[in-house]
Amino acid sequence: MKTVDKHKRLPFVKVICVIIVPIVNLLFRIKVEGIEKLPKSGGYVFCSNHLSFLDPVFWIVKTKKQINYMAKEEIFKNSFLAWIFRNVGAFPVARGKGDLTSVHTATDLVNDGKILGIFPEGTRSKDGKPARAKSGAAYIANMTGADIVPMAIVVKGKVRPFCKVRLIIGDVIKHEEIAFSGTDRKALKAATDRIMGDIITLWENGQNEW
Length: 210
Known about the structure:
- Helix content is 40%, strand content 18%.
- Helix 1 (11-27) packs across helix 2 (55-63), helix 4 crosses helix 5 (136-144) and helix 5 crosses helix 7 (185-207).
- It has a seven-stranded mixed β-sheet, sandwiched between helices.
- The protein is an alpha/beta fold.
């Protein structure tokens, strides 16, 4: 029986990539480092710092994998944008409200062997530096038994046309390294700090290697 590639891009994503890939490559000098560290199969959580609204576009264009990511619910209030975002694999999350529906969607995706993309900070950085993380990524990884793949998006200054963008993928954080039982808040915080700590380390190293 033929194995289904759960990391394969959705049909709509393939179509828009034909259009956006040449544009993105023309406007930005993007370099990906550590692409070989991405697991070939199985569900996992892909975490990155958040610099601009273009971050998911960089993911889609350069990883060549279907990453299903959370997006703030406000975007989905516009029917046209909602249609586009759903067709590229995004789903809404109500930030700061304990949105159980989005949590269930996220865990279902990972349990089905797909890639879940999360910005642990929950919002874009105001100064370009990684900020304090929320616990969502660690919580979902713990619920599903999934590994975490950290990535740092590194830019000098702000994301702007013709700037250099580095996407630095780190070593996989195995589930066993951050797993905990029940609702241990201290352990959840420790797992969250570990995930964001790896992203910050990648980001800091990236700042020093231009």
